[in-house]
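Supplementary Data S3. Sequence and structure tokens for construct A.
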Amino acid sequence: MTVAGRRGFTLIELLVVIAIIAVLVALLLPAVQQARAAARTSQCRNNLKQIGLALHNYVSSHQRFPPGSTSDVEQGGWITNPSARHIHSWQSMILPYIEQSTVHNQIDFNLSSMHAVNRPAASQIISAYRCPSYSGPQFSDAPSYTRFSPKYATTNYVAMGASDIGHIYGQNSGLFAPDGTIYPLSNTRPADVTDGLSNTILVVETREQGMSVWIDGGTAAVVARRYDADNGPTYASTGIALNYHPYFDYDIPHAEYGPSSMHTSGALHLLGDGSVRFISQHIAASVYIALTTRNGGEVIGGGSF
């Protein structure tokens, strides 16, 4: 009795199967990537909501928002001897309210944030301060910090301190008063935000990987408008700084990015009422500036951003 042999795949059939699998993978891959991006954005949004809750808990305890820095705007890790200046950041001050009391207790607030005693705390990577979409280093690569330690942990969230460089530096020049909510030496109460907390940005993402050390108050606030060195005293360009670089094209400190993110075409922003909004980098400059100022008197419709 003769038994027929089992027929195998021909080469053409095998190639067809491989081609079908390749097409299916090509179709599924973008969907998988989009799902992952959405998950990262959701986690980033949750980080900002946690920061917003922490800021309001701080207000409940202190009746005001924390200052962007405990020293003036010209003091930070980039100066010759930063350990001689206080420069503690708003992010250090809210640590107990984001379940980071252990790190907060490591910080000696009587000494500079850049003092050697505070470097162990400065090396701690705070998950709530990092956007999952950020692909840069965990520690600053800026010489301002690496000259002291290779492990100054960075942050992806900064305060929106003023509409432009001239205003955030205005506290020293006397020309302008800072017009944001959280900026160096700020003392802002919720009642001072007369534009309304729901119309005022407190915190924004950043993708800066050098001058964005969470413990350093000198890098803890940014501005809304692009920097123009030739347009004093505001030093403001007509465009906004969102996802624009170089953000601060100066020798020291030099920062590639201010308000920015690795999400597509914009960044997440925390508003004063605790809500989080994704704002496009193509938003009208006038609206973005109005959202930055705390008492500019602007009327902003909910559909404007």
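Construct B, processed identically:
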Amino acid sequence: MLLFIDTSENIDTSENNEAVLALVARQVIFHRFQSNSLSEKLLPEIKSFFHKQKIRFNQIEKIAVVVGPGGFSRIRTAVATANALAFALKIPIAAVNKPEVPKNLEDLKVLPTKKMVEPRYGKQPNITISRSKF
């Protein structure tokens, strides 16, 4: 069974705080949720999703995560969470660029895997003001 995590903003819709989790096994089961504080809600949402589907963490064999492009904090949170889960569960992880997410999520099963993936932000983060401007 594969866990898919997509927290990147959807550029073509006003629902830019939506995140998507999917379990890919014999069928694909989606869980969509809204979150302005993804770093606080992603793991509890995954846990709740698993509980509703009667899935245990040790049943996950692979993780696929959207690594970008997208908002700095959302991508960083998703990638860090996916890497931590893959490390803790000792399972492989695959990186997916947002434009390359297949329409059929079953295709995620054949993506090349690594022990850890890196985010791809698409541009430099703009999260602080330079102290030299003061």
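The first strand starts at residue 2 and ends at 6. Confidence is low (pLDDT under 50) at residues 11-15.
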